[in-house]
Specification:
Layout lengths: L1 E2 L4 E5 L5 H11 L10 H13 L3 E8 L2 E11 L8 E9 L8 H15 L4 E4 L6 H9 L25
Parallel strand pairs: 5-6
Antiparallel strand pairs: 1-2, 2-3, 3-4, 4-5
Amino acid sequence: MQNRSTAVQIRESAPADWLAVAGLLAQLGRPDVRGTAEEAEARRVYERYLERLDTVALVAEDEGRVIGFLDMEFRTWLNFLTPQAWIPDLVVAEDARGRGIGAALLARAEELARARGCWGMTLESATWRERAHAFYVSQGWKEVARSFSRVLTDAEWPPAPRP
């Protein structure tokens, strides 16, 4: 899928996208594992994710550079006969925001969710990401829930807001 307004190609993510995706996830506030002892295992987790039948991962590519990433899981709730699409991650490179790339990723994700017969889509966004919240509302999403988390290790979560 090509978005004419941004000239960005939206395609399924591939193992070769690992470093770019890891960098985008770091921009989102995830641990930056590039060049660390954890990188090899994190890469294996990513590659296994791409192989799963209940997931899809998309990248936005502009002239060979991966500038956006979205992953989506199809999960079934008890007493629902069709799945719900859940987006754990949506990130656009800081220097590429405001060009419609996030909207293009969400549009492709919605097409895939509809094709899978999903009854709805959901995602979470950190409380301090007010710009992202405004973006989701502009795309027709509604704020419908609160998310609660309990950290069970010494991991710093959620990450500190970026200035």
